[in-house]
Known about the structure:
single chain, alpha+beta, 3 strands, 10% helix
Amino acid sequence: MIWTTTPWTLPASMAVAFHPDFEYVVVGDDDPHGDAYIIESRRMGPVLEATGLNAPKILARVSRQGDGKDQSSPSVS
């Protein structure tokens, strides 16, 4: 889930930005085929509460260093 005020730009988006001084968590459940969400760690509680997402477990933490992996857009094959 990426928030934007200009959703028509998402298909052309080539990057997702992370603030270098924030810590992010990857949250999900125990289902290995389930969805996972990257959320800024201080916003995890409010985001899960506001959206009703069932993602009670922290699967990983992403720090300033990142994980060095490229991400792909789900809308572009």
